[in-house]
Write a structure and sequence with these properties.
mainly alpha
Length: about 120
């Protein structure tokens, strides 16, 4: 493993001292770029799920208009083969999230059918 020596301000050095064992992991995360989806997207979904929605509410769940618009933009760029690597990762993250939500919706539909 390579060793790198850098100069940092004293205040930062103090903060880094407690993270010494995790520095390679922290640097790797920082260099790989921001999370593919904004935190508010995850927060919106989690807050909805934490309310323990009824089966019908789960079936009716939709992303915000802003998220719907962003997904549409990404899909249009994808069809035109103009996605950047970051946009491709973002679209894949939306697809994974959508897949998870579909699983919840399928279960909710089963619950609704059982109640009928």
């Amino acid at each position: 493993m390579a060793q790198i020596t850098i100069e940092v301000p004293d205040a930062l050095a103090e903060r880094l001292a407690s993270l010494r064992d995790r520095l390679p992991e922290i640097l790797e995360q920082a260099l790989s770029g921001p999370a593919p989806l904004p935190a508010e997207v995850y927060r919106y979904v989690l807050e909805f799920l934490m309310r323990n929605p009824s089966p019908q509410e789960m079936v009716d769940f939709k992303p915000t208009p802003a998220v719907q618009e962003r997904i549409s933009e990404l899909l249009a760029k994808n069809r035109a083969s103009r996605l950047t690597a970051a946009e491709s990762a973002e679209l894949e993250a939306y697809e994974r999230l959508n897949h998870l939500i579909r699983k919840f919706k399928i279960r909710a539909l089963q619950d609704l059918k059982a109640q009928a």
